[in-house]
Amino acid sequence: MSLALPPRNLATQVGSIITRTTTSTTRRRMSKTSFSSITDQNPDEPPANWEKVLEGIRKMRSSEDAPVDTMGCEKAGILLPPKRLLQNDLLTADAIDKADEATIKSLIYPVGFYTRKANNLKKIANICLMNYNGDIPRSLKELLLLPGIGPKMAHLVMNVGWNDVQGICVDTHVHRICNRLGWVSRPGTKQKTSTPEETREALQKWLPKEEWVPINPLLVGFGQTVCTPLRPRCGACTVSELCPSAFKETASPSSKSNKSTSRKKPS
Ligand code: SF4
């Protein structure tokens, strides 16, 4: 069996590791009683109007103008920093295992946490060589044992690398938006979920399985362009009348949004 890691799978794993209007004051806010069907729902049942909301978000996303539309992990190896790994013949477990960590670090810069990710890539490459004949693990359980791989990445790798959908890939955008829409709550309560993992479990209870893969890029892009972490653009959102959080977070402190996110270049 070849020790070379299939480029598609390694690119997926690398990409997964390193990646990742005016509000009208006259607009009517929905009253609390308007959402009683959402807040009082059985958490195992689909929330009211979820299909309408999903369709509305799909329409808003039809222009595909979000960063995720060109930089999703499926593009790893073509457009993303792994391209530089490919150009340097570093898309096999063997090559990464032998490569200098500083070189990997400089090639994946400027992705977030590039130092830790370069270190994890080395460790993962070694584990793949030792335990999986240079391939990546085939199961969710084994993926979760790799350094730096949590449920979000493990599900993403299973979906994209193995075409084996075992769960929803819930990142910070999916987690935030599902809570704003009132789609998820903590088990046995009506409280919001507090972690992406809780959101994944709550969402999987009712969302049809055929939506488990498309929901991620759909909501990630929606979160990058409209339902943003700070000051969501509810005035431009066509599903605001079905959203229990509409216009409730429009006065976020400006200081947080102005924080610098620049990263120091690797030496
Ligand atoms: S109305 Fe606002 S909070 Fe609700 S989904 Fe739209 S942008 Fe997000």
TrEMBL record:
Any one Gene Ontology MF annotation carried by this entry is: 4 iron, 4 sulfur cluster binding
Instruction: List the EC numbers from the record.
Output: 3.2.2.-, 4.2.99.18
Q: Identify the stretch(es) annotated as Disordered.
A: 22-48, 247-267
On the tree of life, the source organism's domain of life is: Eukaryota
Q: Which cofactor does it need?
A: [4Fe-4S] cluster
- Annotated Pfam families: HHH, HhH-GPD
InterPro entries tied to this protein: DNA_glycosylase (IPR011257), Endonuclease-III-like_CS2 (IPR004036), Endonuclease3_FeS-loop_motif (IPR003651), Endouclease-III_FeS-bd_BS (IPR004035), HhH-GPD_domain (IPR003265), HhH_base_excis_C (IPR023170), HhH_motif (IPR000445), NTH1 (IPR030841)
One cellular component term from this protein's GO annotations in UniProt: chloroplast nucleoid
This protein's species is Morus notabilis
Q: Which SMART domains match?
A: ENDO3c (SM00478), FES (SM00525)
Which family would the database say this protein is a member of? Answer: Belongs to the Nth/MutY family.
Tell me, which GO biological process terms does this entry list? Answer: base-excision repair, AP site formation; nucleotide-excision repair
Function, please? Bifunctional DNA N-glycosylase with associated apurinic/apyrimidinic (AP) lyase function that catalyzes the first step in base excision repair (BER), the primary repair pathway for the repair of oxidative DNA damage. The DNA N-glycosylase activity releases the damaged DNA base from DNA by cleaving the N-glycosidic bond, leaving an AP site. The AP lyase activity cleaves the phosphodiester bond 3' to the AP site by a beta-elimination. Primarily recognizes and repairs oxidative base damage of pyrimidines.
Q: Does the keyword NAD apply?
A: no
Keywords attached to this Swiss-Prot or TrEMBL record, sorted alphabetically, are: 4Fe-4S, DNA damage, DNA repair, Endonuclease, Glycosidase, Hydrolase, Iron, Iron-sulfur, Lyase, Metal-binding, Nuclease, Transit peptide
The reactions it catalyses are: 2'-deoxyribonucleotide-(2'-deoxyribose 5'-phosphate)-2'-deoxyribonucleotide-DNA = a 3'-end 2'-deoxyribonucleotide-(2,3-dehydro-2,3-deoxyribose 5'-phosphate)-DNA + a 5'-end 5'-phospho-2'-deoxyribonucleoside-DNA + H(+)
What's the protein called, per UniProt?
Answer: Endonuclease III homolog
Domain spans labelled HhH-GPD: 83-225
